[in-house]
Amino acid sequence: MLIRKAPDIAPSEITPESIYRQRRQFMKGLAAGGALLMSGQASALARYALDEEQVRYLGPDWLQQKLRAAQKSSVFSTDEPLAPYEHVTGYNNFYEFGLGKDDPKAYAQNFKTDPWSVEISGEVHKPGTYQLEDILKGVDLEERIYRLRCVEAWSMVIPWVGFPLASLLKRFEPTGNARYVEFTTLHDPKQMPGQRSRFGTIDWPYVEGLRMDEAMHPLTLLAVGVYGDALPPQNGAPLRLVVPWKYGFKSIKSIVGIRFTEQMPVNSWQRTAPREYGFYANVNPSVNHPRWSQSTERRLPSSLFSPNIIDTQPFNGYADQVADLYSGMDLRKWY
Ligand code: MTE
């Protein structure tokens, strides 16, 4: 990835008014969560009751209700220690809002994520433009704690809230020609300063793709929340992909388009630097990036004196679940 050396996270000194209002709203939400708990229902909000100084993102009412009902999936979750909330929401890659790790949090706070719609197109029997609220009707959300391994060789353990991509794709009834799925992020330079920059690295909008069997794999998640709350804008609100066995750049944020295709899509990083980034981007410690090793990773939180370097696992530790998707393929060629 065309990256600058990441600075350590600088906690923001300033609280924009919108955040302050969200925080007040959070306190109300926390009280509501507590009431739910007392009535015997599990509450994701109460489960991650953070201190009141932390910014929480609640999203629209209909989403809050669904988030509170989310159940933890132990089958799909790791029990490794979670990255702290401020790392998950303050150390981000979202080039639409800038190249620095703290740019997305600084510049995405007024990003409008409600109402939101997703256009379904291509090789599919039920194309159309669907409101997010309709997409989520009848969907039970679950919490899954996944490892996220960035191609830049850092990683975090993150508690996402979402639902399997497969369940959504099936509803649109892909045709027999659908071999791949292409995802597109919103293109809105007015809201996204990175898309206005003359020094941009990416040909906007950001695009990603999966082979159909990868998209249908039970590990592949569409996330609408994190840490029991709605996704913050910097994490790809209101809808993002999470593919835990692939490098983080496959996990495209703020999705507005899903297209079923016969041809393999060209994803944004592959288009930008084809020698460095491929279509598959499976986490693979034995295939180095042309400019750095992929055999280890910096597990956040880490610091200069305690870098917390760990070995990178094939398929990010999910090999027993996904390796057979690639049997017979030369993973050096299909990086
Ligand atoms: N999606 C869009 N639209 N734009 C981006 O710049 N960055 C990717 C991915 N999704 C990116 C994106 C990269 S490189 C990573 S590592 C993850 O988002 C980071 O997700 P996080 O910020 O929620 O940890």
UniProtKB/TrEMBL annotation:
One GO BP annotation of this record = protein repair
What GO molecular functions are on record for this protein?
metal ion binding; molybdopterin cofactor binding; oxidoreductase activity, acting on a sulfur group of donors, quinone or similar compound as acceptor
The segment(s) forming the Oxidoreductase molybdopterin-binding domain are: 111-269
Keywords, ordered alphabetically: Metal-binding, Molybdenum, Oxidoreductase, Signal
Q: Tell me which positions the record assigns to the signal sequence.
A: none
Class of this enzyme: oxidoreductase
Entry comment on modification after translation? Predicted to be exported by the Tat system. The position of the signal peptide cleavage has not been experimentally proven.
Listed Pfam families: Oxidored_molyb
| Co-factor binding details | Binds 1 Mo-molybdopterin (Mo-MPT) cofactor per subunit.
Name the PROSITE patterns for this protein.
TAT
Q: Which SUPFAM superfamilies match?
A: Oxidoreductase molybdopterin-binding domain
- Names of required cofactors: Mo-molybdopterin
Catalysed reaction equations from the record: L-methionyl-[protein] + a quinone + H2O = L-methionyl-(S)-S-oxide-[protein] + a quinol; L-methionyl-[protein] + a quinone + H2O = L-methionyl-(R)-S-oxide-[protein] + a quinol
Q: Where does Mo-molybdopterin bind?
A: 92, 95-96, 150, 185, 235, 240, 251-253
> According to the lineage, what is the superkingdom?
Bacteria
User: Transmembrane stretches, by residue range?
Assistant: none
What Gene3D superfamilies does its record include? Oxidoreductase, molybdopterin-binding domain
Q: What is its EC number?
A: 1.8.5.-
Record's function text? Part of the MsrPQ system that repairs oxidized periplasmic proteins containing methionine sulfoxide residues (Met-O), using respiratory chain electrons. Thus protects these proteins from oxidative-stress damage caused by reactive species of oxygen and chlorine generated by the host defense mechanisms. MsrPQ is essential for the maintenance of envelope integrity under bleach stress, rescuing a wide series of structurally unrelated periplasmic proteins from methionine oxidation.
Assembly behavior? Heterodimer of a catalytic subunit (MsrP) and a heme-binding subunit (MsrQ).
Q: Which family does it belong to?
A: Belongs to the MsrP family.
Q: What is this protein called?
A: Protein-methionine-sulfoxide reductase catalytic subunit MsrP
What is the scientific name of the source organism? Marinobacterium halophilum
Q: Which gene encodes it?
A: msrP
